[in-house]
Write a structure and sequence with these properties.
The complex is a heterodimer of chains A (274) and B (441).
Chain A: H1 2-17, H2 19-34, H3 58-95, H4 98-103, H5 109-143, H6 149-174, H7 177-192, H8 194-204, H9 209-218, H10 229-232, H11 243-271
Chain B: H1 7-28, H2 41-46, H3 49-56, H4 60-76, H5 83-93, H6 98-111, H7 118-131, H8 137-150, H9 153-164, H10 179-190, H11 194-214, H12 219-241, E1 250-252, E2 262-264, E3 273-274, E4 278-285, E5 288-294, E6 308-317, H13 320-326, H14 331-337, E7 340-348, E8 356-362, H15 376-379, E9 386-393, H16 400-406, E10 413-414, E11 418-420, E12 427-436
Parallel strand pairs in B: 3-10
Antiparallel strand pairs in B: 1-2, 4-5, 5-8, 6-7, 6-9, 9-12, 11-12
Classes of the chains: A mainly alpha (274), B alpha+beta (441).
Amino acid sequence: MKTAWVIATTTLGEAMRKRILQVFLMVSLILIIISQAFAFFSLPANTTSSAVGTNATTWGNELVIIRSLAYGIISLAGLVMSIFLGMDMVPTEIEKRTIYTILSKPVARASYIFGKFLGSALTLFVNLGLMALAFMVLVLLKNHTLEWQIFVGVGLIYFQFCMLGAMALLFSILLTRNINVALSFFMFVTGTLSDYWESVVSLTGPGLKPAFRVLHVLIPNYGNFNMHNPLIHPEVLKEIPNYAAQVRNVMLYGVGYTAILVLFAILVFERREV
Amino acid sequence: MNSELRRGPIIATIVVLVVLVVGLQLAIDPNRHYYRTGKSPKEALETPKELFGGAMLGFREVAAGLLWVKADDYFHSGRYDEIVPLLYIVTWLDPHQLEVYSTGAWHLAYNLGDQRLIPEAVKFLKKGIEDNPSVYDIYFQLAWLNYHKIRNYPEALKWGEIAETKQNSDDPKKPLPYWVPNFVCHMMEKSGMYAQSIERWKKLTAESERTWKSHPGDNNLYVEYATRKHNLDTNILRLVLRENVGKPGYRFERAAPGQSLWVPSGDNQAHPVQTNFSLQVKRIAPRRLRVVGHLEMPDWRYENHENYLTLTVTIRDKGYDKLYAAHRDDFQWQKQNLTLYSRDVSFPTDSKKRNEFVTELDLSVDPFDPEGPRDPKKLFPFKSPEYEVSVFFDPARQGPYVQDGLGWLGEGYQDKDSHIDPKRGIRVLEKDIILRRDQIL
């Protein structure tokens, strides 16, 4: 465990020094800060005679757009960073042959893979955490309240992309970089749209439904983590029963699925010749 | 040196984790409808491709905002047909934008100039209620639509009463805006429950008086109190003025506003006003009908004050409700096959003109926008073999002074074509004339 932690902190240091990640972080932070400039896309509030009884203010609507944009930007950054981190860590060390110096020491391959994953998860944590802070400050300036639920929203994104990062790590041991990127992204889109596929399958008739159901519970369901709408409209949070329990279940799902992927990566890496 | 990995425990752990993850997924699934965009892939397929990717990557609410701007653009450029699917896409992407439901339903019921869309507005609001069940806003919109456009007052009362039990969307700790309970009182009155309505006004007035007196500097609270007090006082006055309407021993007599229109007749007989309603429909050109009728109401005019009666003239397919019910979810079919046009007609209570009302139903042009681009043959397809032209008179829709003569429940008049509305207990007047298709086209 200690070895894994050393590898993780080293990986974090290396990743944070990478230009490309710094650029992603800076661009994301800038986009979050300027997201209020897009608030004019907010939906009209109480501007027509029809809207009898609609008391929502333009302020509230602007915040909806700001929150939506910020979560979207953080998700996008998380997507790019997790795939980038996951696909690059092990192959780069093999190419640079630094892996030999590590594995020649009393370091178990399992510890190495676990440490690498932990390092990428820490990197993601630091980056998404900084974005969450920027987002929180922006909302604080706009709304004069601290929205602690931002951490719930960003936490969900974090677990979602830890899962994707673990998948990219597994693929990086088996596949080339390009195929890894394409396959990880494909799995992400498929997993995100699993509800949608379910609806499409339901249109085709009952025959395919059981097969789809099995597939639905087995594939990584990235769509589970898309629980941001009630956080974007905090006034509807109270309408949702057991939101906290659902968040807990989804986060546990993320941890569980990530663990499966990391364990698979360990098994595969154990057999791989380096 | 590297230690040998024991694969067995790892595989066992993976199996345990798979079971755990499957269990969690099964626990997550039943609650996912609260967060996901919606079950229907129809809206997803219709989402513009340039926005679909962004929406799926987490920019759902932004995509909804952009599409709403587009819907507004369609509205201003007359591309009405394209608005309806867009409304559903916007609310599919972001089901908690209350303004989209209220403004969208307003477009559907009022602005698009197609009365066949009114049930779509109701459906759209009901979808909004499904997505936002705990706040009052959309319940109230539905209540308002039933009151103002559909004129189904018991239904308006029902939704208004539900709205009253819900939370303020601005702040759940705040009470609802004062006009929500006020609306419920008005709907009670229009639904024939005038005694309950007055009791309710009394309670509301007392409540607002207390609130205002505890914050005497708050002008808004004073307005709230004054509005309720005015409504209560007016209703008590009306209660007195309408006390003898239609009762045996009383007859109608013209009087100044503020005085009872029913005076002792000196006998014990009932003297309801006999309205002798008559109706004729003539075709004056293809797709143009003249509707002429008499409603012999007494002359309410006092000095120079004119008084008007209002009735509703409707033309639609014979058996419209059944046809609609059979194709409730197929708006394309409805558009291609159903014909519906309804308008209010007001006429003065002038005995010299024998209370004649004349109106023209001109369906050879788009009556909502005569110079607009819409083809009247598509707006009014006339596909059925027969049509009904109906005239409807409801005392609850008349001005207060006219109601003083007719009574809260229409007790002051009688007609062979009148009947008591079973839901409200109000005497209404309705007459239909059936026309063949060739008598219209």
